[in-house]
Amino acid sequence: MALLIVEHGPYAGTAFPLDAPQVTLGRSPTNHIVLDLPTISREHARVRREGDTYILEDLQSTNGTFLNGEPVTQSHLHEGDHIRLGPATLRFTELARAAVEPPLELVATEKPTDTSAVLARVDVERYPLLATESRLGLAAEDRIAFVSQLSTELLQLLDPDELVGRVADGLLEVFPNAEQVLLAFTEEQKGTLVPRASRRRSGQGEREVTLSQTILRTVTEERAGVLCADVQEDARFRDRPSVVGARIRSFLCVPLVCRDEFLGLIYIDTGRVDAPFQRADLLVATAIASQVALAASNIRLHRAAVARARLELDLSLAERVQRSFLPAHVPDIPGMTFATYYTTAYEVGGDFYDFIPTGDGCWLVVIGDVSGKGISAALLMARLTRDIRYHAVRTEPAHILGELSRSLARETDGRVFATVLCLKIQPHERRLIIASAGHCQPLVISRATAPYFFAEATGFPLGVQPEEPYEQKTLTLGPGDCLLAYTDGLTEAMNDSGVTFGTDRLFRAATQAIGLGAKGPERLLEHILLVLRSFRGDAAPTDDLTMLAFRWEAQR
Questions:
Q1: Do 463 and 524 form a contact (C-beta atoms < 8 A)?
Q2: Neighbours of 108 (CB within 10 A)
Q3: Contact at 8 Å (CB) between 521 and 549?
Q4: pLDDT in tens, 65-100
Q5: Higher-scoring residue by pLDDT: 192, 25
Q6: What's the rounded Cα separation, in Å, for the pair 473 and 442?
Q7: Between 243 and 525, residue with greater pLDDT
Q8: E strands of 221-335, at which residues?
């Protein structure tokens, strides 16, 4: 039976039998061989058997399938061929001696370790690299030179697979009596200890590595390296086939610690009765571990920095795309002046506004706020902006909101909602037709009366009650009257004490602006922002903020 054995990548050491006429490989759980990695397509490749031959086919994968380093669409497989899918490299073999090895596994025994099994322990914080030389004697000079060279090489690596491979090979060089080495690292998100690389001098043996809970606790929690005695004599390990079959006599286990963070461990064992590990070996392993931990930490920091840079680039692009949905300028309507203010709490957001000519001399003015923050809100904002422009020239504000609500509920299963205020401006009559889908009440600043919130047009947010009709009301403004529309990022803005700005402060700020002679909408927004910033102090904004104001001039 032929096998595909993963030699490099997160699934290193796993062997998959080609025991079906067609074996598919990919990220989807429906594949015969599941490689759940982001750069591998859901259905990436296939190995097809024809008689005694096997054929590799690429299934139009995004990042391609490579055979012995070359991109391939379809090709026959031969003994020892290497197949690369994303970061995973698999070796094809038909040799009868190839055995299916289970994944690398660390097994913790239930019983505590007898103290007689621990010959020595070393605190990794107290033994840096150069401090080991005086304890090793002249015979250790080559080891020290090797560790120094290894340190230089490791700090130049940025691929974690290259790191573990180089270290595993190097450990067999620096410990000539070692028969098996294993490197395990913590997963960055979960913190679970996962084996990443294993090497055997003989190339054979079990994949299970047994460590006692005491040793694991000493290494992971106390961050101390441990040297164990002849485990063959220990009753706790006699029932472990991996220990008995491998004839393990002694082993080392040292933690990988950098910047006070536990990153993993190095395990080394030997079955040689004539060459058990000594304290000097433990010191060398500890020195190597400190360099490996530093290199691993640098790789993680580098990958995090690259991911951050990629995210910042994506968000910057998303911000430019989102702003392209906003109007480039305010309408040029004789006898009217407009002003707007727009800012997001993050790079992208869910607030939006628009000015849309309806073709009959009127304009539709829209301001809205989508539930949520960030990318998801920005995508929905773009969708609503598109739909509003589609309906604007065909119908009235109440009907537009009804169409939007039904569409949003249908396509999002009611999981998201949006508040929207629609105002149809009839310039010659100084009249507004207003409909609201749960949006903040606009503030009317009139020359004839005190400022007031227009609360007559109300309705559910879009997507909440899709079959509920919206009502629309008419508002006539006099010469010099002004209307302010805004999102809840204004009234719900908080200061350091957790107090919100509220509608009362907004009302007072608008009244104060009039008293100070702020006749135009631009001066009105400037004064409200000044009052808001004074109120908020050093508190960072937590929501997007949009304001839109317009005014009919005193003379038509």
A1: no
A2: 13
A3: yes
A4: 999 999 999 999 998 899 999 888 999 988 643 344
A5: 25
A6: 13
A7: 525
A8: 224-228, 250-258, 261-270
Paired with 418 in beta bridges are 370, 462
Q: Between 519 and 474, name the one with better pLDDT.
A: 474
Q: Which secondary structure element, helix H or strand E, spans residue 281, and what is its range?
A: helix 279-324
Average pLDDT over every residue of 374-397: 81
Q: Check: CB of residue 512 under 8 Å from CB of residue 480.
A: no
3-state secondary structure 307-374: HHHHHHHHHHHHHHHHHHCCCCCCCCCCCEEEEEEEECCCCCCCEEEEEEECCCCCEEEEEEEECCCH
CB neighbours (10 Å) of residue 98? 16
Q: How far apart are CA 231 and CA 234, in angstroms?
A: 5
Asked if pLDDT for residue 17 goes beyond 90, the answer is: no
Mean pLDDT within 476-501: 92
Give the H/E segment covering residue 154.
Answer: helix 141-154
pLDDT of residue 107: 54
Q: What's the CA angle centered on 272, arms 267 and 275, to 5 degrees?
A: 90
Q: Rounded to whole angstroms, how far apart are CA atoms 185 and 164?
A: 10
Tokens of 387: 């739909």
Gap between the Cα atoms of 441 and 451, Å rounded: 12
Q: How far apart are CA 475 and CA 454, in angstroms?
A: 9
Q: What is the DSSP letter of 392?
A: H
pLDDT digits (tens, 9 = 90+) for 112-162: 344 334 445 555 544 444 333 333 333 556 677 777 777 777 777 788 888
The alpha helices in 96-140, defined as continuous H runs, are 133-136
**Crossing angle of the two packed helices 374-392 and 279-324, in degrees rounded to 10:** 20
Is the Cβ–Cβ distance between 225 and 255 less than 8 Å?
yes
CB of 510 within 8 A of CB of 443?
A: yes
B/e letters for 434-445, b = 16+ CB within 10 Å, e = fewer, are bbbbbbbbbbbb
d(CA 537, CA 406): 41
First CA to last CA distance, the chain? 90
Say if CB 541 and CB 345 are below 8 A apart: yes
**pTM across the whole model:** 0.52
DSSP-based three-state secondary structure for 526? helix
pLDDT, position 208: 61
SS3 169: helix
